[in-house]
Design goal:
single chain, alpha+beta, Fumarylacetoacetate hydrolase, domain 2, eleven-stranded mixed beta sheet, five-stranded mixed beta sheet, globular
Length: 309
């Protein structure tokens, strides 16, 4: 697979393009290989990289997303996250759920995805302007004591879509990235219970790998990719992408139904099974070093800080 990245030329205040076949040796190219023109000006994108703390010659975001929709494709993540949530925040429900599952040998009904999840791809829209590059220090939000990561595969459009078939939608994917959806779990469920979906629980920060890989190298094998989560250098999870409810073409076709989608819009698969701390009972703490990786696509690393005052 050929990886693509953008690096900051501080003297010209521009982003240059580079490609690599091994992730170590990079070659400058004049053409942006992802198949679409950025909707943002080169000056604005370079200024954004500087705002993010990217040094001269350092890697910026592989692209600036025009928007961000995050799907939920993996039932295993939903079940594991539901059990992890009640273990921490609703222990009485956790006790009841464990007893029910132990004696009935069935999933506790409140842990199951909503009925709509099985009928059509479901997603929420988040804040595309709060994506940061790998390496950015991440403070706890001021309103949360339960910061979590979510390891996902992201994909960006290279062509417009409207009322597309699944095949047409899949052909419009330009590239894949590693995506991390930071989540403030202690405020997420109350916000979703309001009927308006996650707000401050999600919108404060997300991140992307500094590298992207063109769709042709990934589309036929994305459910077989190997993923790893490390905390402080120790492997704590190997998230699993093998059993999505919907194909990527199906989720994009659904999103494009009576709605115009444009090049540069970013989508997430939703968290891979085992891809969040809540599923494995490991919560982020100040001083942690988080490292997320999907083999051949890229990696994301962050130092976790106390709340910034």
């Amino acid at each position: 697979m050929v990886q693509v990245r953008r690096v900051l030329d501080g003297s010209a205040l521009r982003l240059g393009y580079e490609t690599s076949s091994d992730g170590e040796h990079w070659t400058r190219t004049s053409e942006w290989p992802l198949g679409y023109l950025s909707p943002f000006s080169p000056e604005w994108e370079a200024a954004r990289a500087v705002e993010h703390g990217v040094a001269d010659g350092g890697a910026a975001l592989p692209f600036e997303p025009l928007s961000f929709r995050d799907f939920m494709l993996f039932e295993g993540h939903y079940l594991g996250a539901a059990r992890g949530y009640v273990d921490r925040f609703r222990p009485a429900v956790a006790h009841l759920g464990r007893a029910y599952e132990r004696f009935s040998r069935r999933t506790f009904p409140p842990f199951q995805p909503p009925v709509l999840w099985d009928r059509e791809p479901i997603y929420y829209m988040s804040n595309a302007r709060t994506f940061v590059p790998s390496g950015t220090p991440v403070p706890f939000p001021s309103y949360s004591t339960a910061l979590d990561w979510e390891l996902e595969l992201g994909f960006v459009l290279k062509a417009p879509l409207r009322n597309a078939s699944a095949a047409e939608a899949e052909a419009a994917i330009g590239a894949f990235v590693v995506l991390n959806d930071f989540s403030a779990r202690d405020v997420q469920i109350p916000e979703q219970d309001s009927g308006f979906g996650p707000q401050k629980a999600k919108h404060f920060m997300s991140s992307l790998s500094s590298t992207a890989v063109t769709a042709a190298d990934v589309l036929d094998r994305w459910t077989r990719l190997q993923a790893t989560v490390r905390l402080n250098g120790v492997i704590v999870a190997k998230p699993d992408p093998t059993a999505p409810r919907w194909s990527l073409g199906e989720v994009l076709a659904h999103a494009s139904d009576s709605e115009q989608l444009l090049p540069g819009e970013l989508f997430g698969t939703g968290t891979l099974v085992g891809g969040s701390g809540m599923e494995i009972g490991r919560w982020l703490a100040p001083g942690d070093h988080l490292h997320l990786e999907i083999d051949g696509i890229g990696s994301i690393a962050h130092d976790i800080l106390p709340t910034a005052r």
